[in-house]
Amino acid sequence: MLKEELFSSGKKRIAIFGFLWLLSFFIVAFGQPAWSLKISVVSAFIGHSIFWAALFSIKGKKQKFFHGFVWFACVEAVHLSWMTATRFHGAYILFVYFGILIWLGAQYGLFCILLRKKISISHCLFLAGIWTLFEYSRLFFLCGFAFNPVGLALSSYSELSTFATVFGVYGLSFIVILLNAFAYRAFTQTSKNNIAVYFGSILLLFSLGLLHNGFHKARAQSIGTKKINVALVQTGLRPDQKIMLSSREHHFISPYDQWLGALTYIKKKQSKDRNLDLIVFPEAAIPFGAKQYPYSLTDACLILDMAWGQDYKNHIPELREPFAKQRDGDWYISNSFFAQSLSNFYNSEVLIGLDDYDKEKKHIYNAAFHFVPRRPEKIKRYEKRKLVPLGEYLPIKSLEALVAKYGITGFSERGKSAKVFGEKVRLSPSICYEECFPHLMRDGKKLGAEVYVNLTNDAWYYPSKLPEQHFYHARLRAIENGVPLLRSCNTGITAAIDSLGKTKAMLSSTIYDHQNLRGALIFSLDLYHYFTIYTFLGDYLILAVSFATVGFFAFRLKKNDFLSYIPYR
Fold first, then answer.
1. CA 80 – CA 469 distance, rounded (Å)
2. Which residues lie closer than 8 Å to 487 by C-beta, 6 or more apart?
3. What is the 3 state secondary structure string of 94-138?
4. CB neighbours (10 Å) of residue 72?
5. In 3D, which of 276, 278, 226 has the Cα closest to residue 423?
6. Which of 23, 213, 490, 509 could form a disulfide bond with 457, CB atoms 3.0-4.6 angstroms apart?
7. CA dist 458 to 33, 399, 538, Å?
8. How many beta carbons lie within 10 A of that of residue 452, not counting itself?
9. C-alpha neighbours within 13 Å on the C-beta side of residue 195
């Protein structure tokens, strides 16, 4: 009855259209793990198809484009609402926000033109393929936009994310659109076969997920796996507390106190009977970078004495660069001095995010430094490869004056390659936004990484939903490559995730209680990892599938049918 009323005219049709529009908007807009795990499942299985059903009564390509554009832009306005946190960015970020909404809305509007009232299985596959290609194309604009592929809705439960080990997150997007197309087909062309295809696909997805996770849990128990003891530090500092911003100087916390706090967090949580293997600090954990010398040796030693007692004297490194430098007869020390002392004190490897300046190349890097106990010659550096526009690099030089108002005066050089560090465990570092890019994280696994370590700072969008969204992107990287993942955040979700995507430890008591936390999370991490098809083939497999489904459907179309899919013809 509903289908006939959607085709009819009058107030009832308008009312049904409005109801379906709002219902689908609520399901898809709030159907992300960061908002609701359960609604995410509904969104993945049927959310989009409800909106497509609302388009039944819409005639003409322009009208379909308009409604698809408006609906999806509104959905993404909720998903990207964290971009409206202007406290530290200023109003300019709103222009970026609305620009992205227009871009993503236009993609969905074009997609809606491709819908028909009756669709075949090959048409369902075509829709899934073309949308996947739309999403993948976002990676090639400026620094790339990797947030919120529709497949993220399946990441709410690891059992539903299993196909990411084969096809990656864009494979999950393919599956979400395909399932919604099957639901739409079951509604528009109701038959036992169409209904069976829809529910059978859902059952298959869930069953394979259970089998996959069950197999690897049993395998991990049977073979026995290595474990490491880890400390993840969350400094919990807002930008105006960590660095001195114009008109906010009274919020600034001295770097001496920042170091004292971090050292104290670890000392309070560390058990005497458990040695640490790895200590991790967040991105740009402390101001002044790795090789500047802003601290007097006398004051720095006072901080170490307060944190560790007189025993600190046995663990400080030799007074030479990059740890110390003499000026006018007095010694001044760097953040590297503190990091090496920490590594020596706990006999633990340390990974810390610090800016760095290359004097020879005159380049600034947003970097992660790796320290090994008692061997300062082993210090290694990873340079961030995916830089954020305006914050880390300028796409337009005339914007220098604007970003300078927010304390951003130097811009970073992009790193060239993935790196793997570590002696007790082979770890692949990534910095902040990089963990949203599947192909970047895959590079580390290909180099032999046993664990991913992400250093993050989500404080620039405070307060907002960004940390939760960022976290669920991170989980997918662990699932895609079958590698556990550690996250140390400034004001984000500091946690450990196993190779099946299960959260094994978290600093906050819930996923929503994190932005004001300071402390250290200390735990043992199981390093079970395994081969995945995604690590081997990357995104090439889902791209091949997507191009094949689009090509097959286009090849079968008659000329007049093919021309009907061209927008605005």
1. 9
2. 232, 453, 454, 456, 471, 474, 493, 494, 495, 496, 497
3. HHHHHHHHHHHHHHHHHHHHCCCCCCCHHHHHHHHHHHHHHHHHH
4. 26
5. 278
6. 490
7. 18, 22, 27
8. 25
9. 4
The predicted pLDDT at position 407 comes to: 58
Q: Are 381 and 369 in contact (CB under 8 A)?
A: yes
Exposed (0-12), middle (13-18) or buried (19+): which is 340, by Cβ within 10 Å? buried
Q: Tokens at residue 438, please?
A: 């599947």
Cα within 13 Å of Cα(141), Cβ side: 12
Q: Is 175 exposed, middle or buried (0-12, 13-18, 19+ CB in 10 A)?
A: buried
Bridge partner residues of 331 (DSSP)? 326
Q: DSSP assignment of 48-73, as one string?
A: HHHHHHHGGG--SHHHHHHHHHHHHH
Sheet (strand 349-358) strand order: 380-383, 363-371, 349-358, 278-280, 227-234, 519-526
> Contact at 8 Å (CB) between 67 and 55?
yes
Taking the C-alpha atoms of residue 194 and residue 190, their distance in angstroms, rounded to an integer, is 7
Residue length of the chain = 569
pTM greater than the 0.85 cutoff = yes
Q: Which residue, 84, 140, 85, 72, is CA-closest to 111?
A: 72
Specify the residue for token string 């955040």.
Answer: 489
> Residue 507 carries which side chain, given as an amino acid letter?
L
296 burial (CB, 10 Å; 0-12 / 13-18 / 19+) is: middle
Task: Show the domains of the chain with their CATH numbers.
Answer: 2-221+539-564 (no CATH), 225-287+342-536 (3.60.110.10)
* DSSP string of 251-275, one letter each residue: G---HHHHHHHHHHHHHHH--TT--
Kindly report, residue by residue over 214-254, the tens digit of the pLDDT.
999 999 999 878 899 999 999 999 888 888 887 788 889 99
Q: If you search the block for the tokens 């990656």, which residue do you land on?
A: 168
With tokens 């997007």, the residue in question is 173
How does DSSP classify residue 43?
I
Query: In sequence order, what are the beta bridge partners of 356?
Result: 365
Instruction: Choose among 49, 23, 28: nearest CA to 152.
Output: 28
| 322 prior amide bond cis, ω within 30 | yes
Residue with tokens 């497949």: 151
pLDDT value of residue 43: 97
Structure confidence by residue, pLDDT tens digits, 101-151: 999 999 999 999 999 988 999 999 999 999 999 999 999 887 789 999 999
For the stretch 358-373, pLDDT in tens is 888 888 999 999 999 9
Distance of alpha carbon 78 from alpha carbon 66, whole angstroms:
19
Contacts of 482 (CB under 8 A, 6+ apart): 165, 216, 445, 499, 529, 530, 531, 532, 535
Tell me if residue 238 falls in helix, strand or coil. coil
Indicate the residue type of 133: L
